Amino acid sequence: MTRLLEILIALAITAVMFLVIGVLLPSSRSLEEKVETNRRQTIVFDTINSFRRFDDWHPFAVQDPRIKIQLSGPDSGVGAKMSYDSSVKNIGTGTWEIVESEPRSKVAYAIENEQRGSNKRSEFTLRPTGRSGRNIEITQTYNVDYGWDLLGRYAGLYVARNVGDNIETGLKRLSNMLASVPNVDYAIEGSSLRDLAAAELPAEHLLMVKAGAIERSNDAIMASMKDNMEWINRTLAANRLQAAGPMRIITSELGRETYTFDIAVPVRAGGAAAAADASAEGETAAAAPVATDASQPLTGLQLLGPVEYVHSPPVRVAKARYTGFMAELDNVRNALRAWAMTQGHEVVGRPFENYDNGIDAAFTAEGEYEVFWTLKQ
Question: By its UniProt entry, which InterPro entries does this protein fall under (predicted)?
Fold first, then answer.
């Protein structure tokens, strides 16, 4: 009997100590970690303002490569939501939802999961730092309330290890991932780069000439474009084809001294009159697309000089419009690639541009282009 009383007294003392310590423990916990990147603020913000690259930087995907992630709501901004389901005990199931979004400066997520606590919230804030504000300091915070849940308060003793380690690892992965994105701001106010989007490009028939490595001077590049367009126009006329769009330049390499590119024109079956007129002008004018079946290659073509025929299958592309000098297009291509990567896309192949208002205008500030990168399927 005495032994039983001793056990009961010990249990009572333990329970009282548990209650006293639990009451004295904090009813909420807050964590904060920081990392710095030299990527543009637009790139950082767009990356964290959606969940399309969440599994590329958050450690969940490392801890459980088989984790199931489902996105819902808008693509980005307030209301965008990510649900996950994992068989790994420390991850379990839960959701992240963007509940606050301040352009280029702050993104806040409401978090629900199986761990104890309520009002779980994680915030990213962005602040220019370094010389001339060239770098961006990324600060991530995490807050959770336990209220009078004493077990939750005890669980809070380990939140720095469980959640804090994830935050630290996630920020390092985010910084490394951002380093792979071209450091070009595609959203500068007043820029003539516009209408960035992902779209489907249908199958096309292309007449193409490989221009080779051309000296990087306006005169040499312009002469190469016009000379090779003459061959394409002759081939158009010889085969009673019509241009189905403007001249297209496909970039292979832009070196310090040379520019290596191909020239192409999308074509469709038609009469010789339009091709003859274009040949007289020295370049092909844009033609409005018409309903035509380009799913099968053309056969029996008479290809003149260096002209080749290419049947291009349907692809998904990132695209944008730009007004300005042709010499600025390399920066535009990188800007479009940066935008595509923040949207969760991977670009492949070679970039290309439609010269919407012709060769001569391309060497002036009035050049009009539609710029494309093929996206990995």
Answer: Polyketide_cyclase/dehydratase, Reg_factor_effector_dom_sf, START-like_dom_sf
In which residue are the tokens 């002759």 written?
Answer: 234
Q: What is the DSSP letter of 132?
A: G
275/191 Cα distance (integer angstroms)? 36
The model's pTM:
0.85
- Please tell me the distance from the alpha carbon of residue 105 to that of residue 51, in angstroms, as a whole number: 17
How many whole angstroms separate alpha carbon 121 and alpha carbon 132? 32
List, in order of start, the domains of the chain with CATH numbers: 26-178 (3.30.530.20), 194-375 (3.20.80.10)
Six-digit token string for 244: 């189905």
Could you read off the pLDDT of 285-330 as tens digits, one per residue?
333 333 356 778 998 999 999 999 999 999 999 999 999 999 999 9
Task: Report the distance separating Cα 93 and Cα 200, nearest Å.
Answer: 35
Q: Could you give the CA distance from residue 108 to residue 124 in angstroms, rounded to a whole number?
A: 6
pLDDT in tens, 136-185: 999 999 999 887 766 667 666 667 777 888 999 999 999 999 999 999 99
In angstroms, rounded to a whole number, what is the distance separating the alpha carbons of residues 315 and 201? 5
Q: What angle do CA 296, 302, 305 make, to 5 degrees?
A: 120
Closest CA to 214 of 181, 184, 251: 251
Distance CA 45, CA 31 (A): 21
- Note the maximum CA span of the chain: 115
Rounded CA separation 330/324 (Å): 12
Signed CA dihedral, 150, 154, 155, 159: sign only? positive
Who contacts 191 (Cβ-Cβ below 8 Å, separation ≥6)?
Answer: none
Nearest Cα to Cα of residue 247 among 321, 355, 326, 322:
355
Q: Is residue 209 a contact partner of residue 228, using CB atoms and an 8 Å limit? A: yes
Q: In 3-14, which positions are buried (b, 16+ CB within 10 angstroms) versus exposed (e)? A: eeeeeeeeeeee
Q: Is 123 helix (H, G, I), strand (E, B) or coil?
A: strand
**Single-letter amino acid, residue 28:** S
Q: Indicate the DSSP class of residue 103.
A: T
Q: Supply the Cα-derived Rg of the chain in whole angstroms.
A: 30
